[in-house]
Amino acid sequence: MLITLVSLLLLFPLSHFFSPLAATMVIPLTAFIAAYVLHDRFWWKWMHLCFLPLLIVCSQFDIQSYWYLLALLLCWFIFGRVMISRVPLYLSNRAALQQLQGIVPEQANFLDIGAGTGTVLHYLAQHRADLNLSGVEYAKGPWLLGKIRLPAKVAWLNVDYKNVDLGAFECVYAFLSSAAMPDLWQQAVQQMRPGTLFISNTFVVPEIPADQVIDLNDWKDGKLFLWRM
């Protein structure tokens, strides 16, 4: 957000004292470099590189204002309060699903935090009939899709995971973001019982080494991080 704000503030002086073309070339490249230095995920660089040119291109069309409102509402429907939570919609891939099938303890109460469209729960319901499955998803769109696709035996909650007692589960799985991990870890430490299992897809807990790391060997160099509470 800071990079985007600075880019927009630089747009006027650069375009006024030099040229609009120079501004649209210099600012995205500067934002790209800043994102490369400040961010740890590759997609941020390309988002900052493309944001301003796309903004200028869209401004050339006679697009009615209500379309932008509809786009905003659609983003809220799909991604929820991502600007506050800083947790976008991530979907677990098949490599993660296959690993989870083998590592979740037998007959465990399993919770998927930020469960998206219920991909993990749908897979485990098919391959691990011994598990008691629950999922939490705050965004309305993914939750509704999960409500349609998941079997009735899965507890499917449209609430903030912070309001869920993690102490009721032997295994908790999360695929959120680096911004959410410190608070989620504190909640897990306070609520989860000794001997239970906490699993994070891709995102680590700062300064807390995982007890086990499973490489998913996928295109994004994904990993499962496991902590025994």
Automatic annotation (TrEMBL):
Keyword Transmembrane: yes
Membrane found in the keyword field: yes
Protein name per Swiss-Prot or TrEMBL: Class I SAM-dependent methyltransferase
Organism expressing this protein natively: Deefgea salmonis
InterPro entries tied to this protein: SAM-dependent_MTases_sf
An example Gene Ontology molecular-function term: methyltransferase activity
Domain of life: Bacteria
Alphabetically ordered keywords of this record: Membrane, Methyltransferase, Transferase, Transmembrane, Transmembrane helix
One of the GO biological process terms: methylation
Ranges annotated as spanning the membrane: 42-59, 66-84
